[in-house]
Amino acid sequence: MWQKCPRQKHLGFDIRDQSEFVEQMALSVFVLFFLIVLFPEQGFMCFVSGARIKCRSCRLDRCLQQGMRKEAVTSGIVGNEEKVAPQTAYLASISLPSTSTAIPKVTETASCLRQTLRLITKFRKCNIIVEKIDLHISALLTMPSFLDNLNNYQEETDFKRDLPEWCTIDLLCAIEFAKKLPDLSKFSDSDKEELIRNSCFTIAIAIEAIESYFDKKKTVVMPDGTDVMQSLANSGSVIHAVFTQMFVCILDPLHRESFTIDELVLTLQLLFFTIAAPENLTPEGKEQLEKSVKSSMHCLMVLLITQNTTNFSARYGSLIALNETFIKTAHAHKQKMKEAEHSRQKFRDFLIEQCVFDYRPAK
Questions:
Q1: At what angle do helices 103-123 and 261-275 cross, to 10 degrees?
Q2: Where is the NR LBD domain (predicted)?
Q3: How many beta carbons lie within 10 A of that of residue 148, not counting itself?
Q4: 151: domain CATH number?
């Protein structure tokens, strides 16, 4: 990012021999050191095509690639009439026009995913008969969305589902959410299936927690209001600490940080692409996955910058930590399910077989 000093001219002086070059280099280092000491809060200028410019000219994408480090994106020494608080200067330099071109896309994506999450809440309460659905991941990815045809179903008031069937419904919801992600269409069919295998169980856990959070619950509950912990107790299962982590502690950061629905849906978008195992993708899929991760990070960051001008970086860190909680919780959940593999009835819950036990049906 930092421009190398030209060997022919520096600070406006002609350099005619090596000794003069060394002297000029020493002078420039001294001047730079002096400015940093005198104005430590002002940071540095960005370089683009060899020119010193204010950061907003190089677009937000470039700054995001630098990890949003303040030193790399704040404008340099400004005149007295332009001096403002460092945080204000920082935001002014990146907000216009950098984020302005991205805001419509972010708004559209957040709106689509927000509506998807609301439809999922309704879908989970409908009288869906799992046995009548082709639960091959490949088929679910190509068939029309359940969320677009909710009028074909009725809302149920008295559920008769056991926990495995609820898990199947949750996995269906996660796939429906993934199908609404803008970048998913950029992958081949085989890569889409690999992404679903890797990510949808964690997305299902996250959606379940988010729904309980917005319902102001302190523990994860089913759409009929049944407490999962109580269901486990009624089934005679021993409630280990790992189950408490999965169904109770997972809600702690949500309640503590009071995340908004837009923050959460864009965080879920990032979560979906960051879980994927690149080694299982085609070369084109690996390349697109990298682009989708960056695009999702950019989308979330723009939202945070535009909705809060003081603590967006801390907010971003909290959301990334939330994703890590979702990943750890889903991993623990999978491990508990795999521990019971010897006693389970195989191929009864076909979607669980594919997403948890990595069963791959013949094409």
A1: 90
A2: 132-359
A3: 10
A4: 1.10.565.10
Question: Which residues, listed in sequence order, are joined to residue 47 by a DSSP beta bridge?
Answer: 52
Q: 141 Cβ partners below 8 Å, 6+ apart?
A: 175, 179, 189, 192, 193, 196
84 and 107, same domain (yes or no): no
Q: Using an 8 Å Cβ cutoff, are 179 and 141 in contact?
A: yes
Percent of the chain scoring above 90 in pLDDT: 37
Note the pLDDT tens digit of each residue in 137-184: 999 999 999 999 888 888 877 777 777 888 899 999 999 999 999 999
35: in domain:
yes
Torsions phi, psi for 27 (to 5 deg): -65, -45
Q: Number of folded domains in the chain?
A: 2
- The reply to whether 300 and 342 lie within a common domain is yes
Both 319 and 219 in one domain: the answer is: yes
Only one residue has tokens 């095509």, namely 49
Contact between residue 35 and residue 27 where contact means Cβ atoms under 8 Å apart: no
1-14, pLDDT tens digit by residue?
444 444 444 444 44
The residue-averaged pLDDT of 22-39 equals 50
Of 99, 126, 149, the one marking the end of a domain is: 99
